[in-house]
C-alpha cells in the first residue's frame, strides 16, 4: 500500500486530479447504475411473482388426489409449466412446457416447508436456453405432494441484459467525457501555476525585477497565491536592498579606522623608535581599535534588534537606573522627571536600557547640557520616554533620515560615533509596536505606528519614544 501510494505521488498533479475525478465519477456511476438496475429488476420480479401467484391460485383447486386433474383445459390455460411431485422427486402430473423429469432436485424439495419456496433455473449471464422462475408449494393432505409452477424468464432476462449493456455503454461514455472534461479543467486550473513556475525560475536565474503575471480581473485561490508570491518577492527585494545598503555603508565606515590603523603601523615601521615612542604609538593604536570595536558592537546590536523581546518591563525603573549610572560615571548634567510610580510597558528591561542608553549617548555626543529625561503616560494604553537637550539640534532635512544607518550631519562626522544609535532605537521601537519621534524647532518626523498623542515640545531637540503600556 505504501509503495503504491509512493508511485502515485510521483505522477504529475494533473494526472492525479483527473484520475481522482474519474474514480469518483466511476463510483457515482456504478452506484447510480446499480440502483437503477435493482429497481427495474424488482419491478420484473414482482410481475413474475404475480403470474406465479395467479397460476397457483388456479391450479391448486384443479389437482385432486394422486395424479388426477379435474379440468386440464383450465390448467393449460394458465400458460405456465407445472408439475405435481412426490417428496422423492417423482413427477405425478404435469402440464404446459414441463417435461417428464422434475424441474428441481430432491434437495430443493426438502427445503420446502409450510411456506412456498421460489427457485431460479438458468442463469442471467451467461445466457440460458430455458430460464424459469419456479415456485413450489406443499399441498394439503396425505400422501405428501408438491405443486411446482414455473414461469419463463426470457423477457425479463433479456430486458435486464439490455439494461446492463446500455448502462455499461452509458457509463463508459460518461467516464470518457468526464475524463476529457476533467483533463481540460485541470490543465486550465494548473496553467497559471505552471506560468508562475516559469516566471519564478526566471527570477531565480537573476531577473529580480520580474514579477508574476497575475490577472487583475480574477480573485481565486491561484490569483491570491500569485499576489502572495509577488508580495513575498517585493519583501525579499527590499530586504536584499537593505542588506546591500547596510554592507556598503558598513564597509565605508569600517574603511576609515582600518586605513588609520594601517597608516599608523606603516609609519611606526619606517624607522627605529624608543620605548616611549612605541608606547605612544600603541596608545594611538588603542584609540583606533576602541573605535573599531565600538563600531562592530553597534553593528551587532543593529543586526539583533529585530529579535527584541516582547516581555514586560518598567520604563520608570529602567530610566532611573540608566540615568543614575550616567550621573555616577561623569559630570554631565542630567535631569529626570518620572510620574512617581511604575510604568509597565510591553518591552523587556534590557531593551529599555538599550533604547535609553543610545538616546543619552546621542544627546551627549551631538547635543549640549542640560539633558532632560522625562517619563509619563500621555494617553490610555501608551507610555512616553522623552530625551531633550539644549544643543544645536538637527536641520529639517536631516530629521527625515536621521534614523537611517550611518546617517550623520556634516559637522558630526568629526565626532565619535558611526550614526547607528537612532537606527538601533528605531528597530527596537518598531519591534515593540511603538513610535519614534524626532522634533526640533517646530519640525517633526515619525517612525513606526501612529500614536494619537500630540507633540508638545518647544525649540529644543527632543527624541520621543512611545511604547504600548501594560
CATH topology of the largest domain: Heat Shock Protein 90
The radius of gyration is 49 Å
Overall pLDDT metric: 82
Report, as a whole number of angstroms, the end-to-end distance.
56 Å
Report strand order across the widest sheet.
7-9-10-13-11-12
SSE arrangement, N to C = HHHEEHEEEHHHEHEEHEEHHEEE
What do you see in this structure?
There is one protein chain. With 470 residues, this protein is an alpha+beta fold. The chain folds into 3 domains: 151 residues, Beta-Lactamase, CATH 3.30.450; 81 residues, Orthogonal Bundle (Helix Hairpins); 161 residues, Histidine kinase-like ATPase, C-terminal domain (Heat Shock Protein 90, 2-Layer Sandwich). 52% of the residues lie in helices and 16% in strands. It contains 11 helices and 13 strands. The chain has a 6-stranded mixed sheet with strand order 7-9-10-13-11-12. A 5-stranded antiparallel sheet has the order 2-1-5-4-3. Strand 1 and strand 2 form a beta hairpin. Helix 6 runs antiparallel to helix 7 and helix 8 crosses helix 9. The chain is rod-shaped, with a radius of gyration of 49 Å. It starts with a helix and ends with a strand. About 1% of the residues have low confidence.
